[in-house]
Amino acid sequence: MTLTAVQAGAYLHHIALESSAPERLAVFYAEVMDMELSQHSKGEWRCEGPGRRMVVVPGEDRKMAYAGLACRDIDGVAALKDRAKSEGLDILESPSPYLDQAFAVRDQDGHLICFGVAKPDSVKRKGINGPTQHLTFASNDVQAFIDLYHGKLGFALSDRVLHENGALATAFTRSNHEHHTIACFKSDRVGVDHHSYEAGEWITIRDWCDHFAKHDVQLLWGPGRHGPGNNLFIFIEDPDKNWIEVSAELEVIHDRDNVDWPQHPRTLNKWGRAIMRS
């Protein structure tokens, strides 16, 4: 199978969240996730930091408007578009303000995923290190997720988590060398489980925790270490109850087969308490 998304070097550039109180949510991300805030037309707010961006638009709480993945170059975008067409996916217009030569598709659960080339950004933004890194969905059907992202868009399958009966609990897919770009948990709901920022080093997670404390934001989960990806993590929650992860030392994959993990608390967190989704 051709790994078209990996060949394109796609990475998670930004996401856009809906909110019934978009200004409140945008202010939270600007302050707590250390970004600059600006308001745009039709109630759209944009938060921008070093390597990270968040768009907030009016709508339903805990719902993603779209995700934007940037490719290495226009050839990668064209190859992904051709792949999507050949797999029978509808090619849609991209609403992303950050991508050029972009297109969008809807995945198996209706999430709008945009691909394009990142527009140049000459502004040197200050802030704690933590680029936007991955997005994880909640879904009733993890196999359908694999069939779409791995089977039709050419993401690589890094790891799976399986229940004792062999049923899928989680799947991790990547579009570059980092362990996962988009993942999916088996759940009784459909939507976003969490999105994540990559701090790079353990010491930077400490800096994020100190920053959260200054804003009276307590940790929801962690610190801990995941099994798949082997990354260190902390979780917080925004005012709309969206989960935010700050991760560090995520596995970099160059050439290995995907691994099957057991659905067990120690798979979710080697160090302590696990939040089991199924």
UniProtKB/TrEMBL annotation:
Q: Where, if anywhere, are coiled coils annotated?
A: none
Question: Which is an annotated Pfam family here?
Answer: Glyoxalase
Domain of life from the UniProt record: Bacteria
Where is the VOC domain positioned along the sequence?
11-118, 131-249
InterPro entries noted in UniProt: Glyas_Bleomycin-R_OHBP_Dase (IPR029068), Glyas_Fos-R_dOase_dom (IPR004360), VOC_core (IPR037523)
Record protein name field: VOC domain-containing protein
Q: Which organism is it from?
A: Phyllobacterium salinisoli
